[in-house]
Specification:
Elements (H helix, E strand, L loop, with lengths): L29 H13 L6 H13 L4 E5 L2 H11 L7 E5 L5 H8 L3 E5 L10 H7 L4 E7 L8 H11 L2 E5 L7 E2 L2 E2 L6 E5 L12 E5 L2 H11 L23 H32 L5 E2 L7 E3 L4 E6 L1 H4 L4 H10 L16 H4 L7 E3 L5 E3 L11 H10 E5 L7 H16 L1 H5 L10
Parallel strand pairs: 2-3, 2-4, 4-5, 5-8
Antiparallel strand pairs: 1-9, 6-7, 6-11, 8-9, 10-12, 12-15, 13-14
Helix pairs in contact: 1-8, 2-8, 3-4, 3-7, 8-13
Length: about 425
Amino acid sequence: MQVTNRSMLALRGGDPVRSTPFPYWPVFGEKEETALLHVLRSGNWWYGDKVRSFEERYARFQDARYGVSCSNGTVALELALRALGISAGDEVLVPAYTFIATATAVLTVNAKPVFVDVSEENYNIDLDHAETLVNENTKAIIVVHFAGLPVDIDRVETFARRRGVLVVEDAAHAWGSQWKGMGVGALLGMGTFSFQMSKNITSGEGGIILTNHKDVADLARSYTHCGRTAANVWYQHAHVGGNYRITEFQAALLLEQLARLPEQTRTRELNALYLNERLSAIPGIRLPQHDDRVTRRSYHIYMFRYLRDEFAAGSREIFLNALRAEGIPASQGYLTPVYGNNCFQDLRSVPGLERCSSERFCDRAAVDFSGVCCPVAEKLCREEAVWLPHALLLGDRKDMESVVAAIEKLYAHREELEHMGHGKGKRK
């Protein structure tokens, strides 16, 4: 009988903590198949009752009055800004640690994104830093509920009122997240969600705009629907819009996925609470600060900060390589803050209009991001952030114990990892 060495690092030839996969994403079954077949056989594949039903149900799920579906979360952000009247000459505050669409949406409406650092306590926008960036051109702020953790809604509301700026909630990580028992997305005026393949509720692609204001919802609807309005006949177009509609197939999937979401969210929360309790006891693993006003969290990403000096096990790259070798799917997340991407660093300060990398026309006069530096976002991207995927949190207690066991194993071998060096050591 072969004797295995479970105590040795997998990178050094030992047995990994786990060799079985975590739950697969997306989760689907007969209900999704039946719903798709129903649409197929009906012959009504285009923008009909199922789309309207999903919009109404999802808005109600997030405690909003109106929902306007669209082709994806990026478009949702762009159209939300357009519906709020953001245009050339306006500045919009955006967090530096987010998916690039939060900022490129601002460029596509010819406005200027102004990058704000994030808090190392919760990875959401740092309003103290935002205060220093407000000027007469600041018209809006986009707040991201990063990893499903709502921003401090109360403080953002006070900030917006005092500064006279509009608010868009980028809730692309926050399906089901709640602040004081109310769903995020329309708490501050207008919000957007994504249903892309990696999201906690998905139809492959898709998005939605939520608001409590009918006039804003009607304008957003027109922009998604070729500029049509309810007051016009079919071939009359009141606004310059586009075709950003979703289909009945997507809506059928989303209705079934929405039915699964509450139970899945409870499972993610319970598993995350267990991980929080166990991982908080390990030096060098820093979890986001808890806020009792957050009454439900989606946990699109389970994220923590890896503090090299406290963990004492070498760089984050070594830590991640060792963790993955133990069978835990972990990543560093964003490679750079948003402004570090080439499409921002290559902008030229020239008057008038020029083409940006997306081939959309944007006002580039006196715009230069080359000197922007947000220290916390830089540190998260380059040294500290560790992401675990949301599907991992759909596992059982034994799955969660394997995550803890893997990190505890790395901590026990921290001196070995410290001296391992990049790329050395091979998994058995």
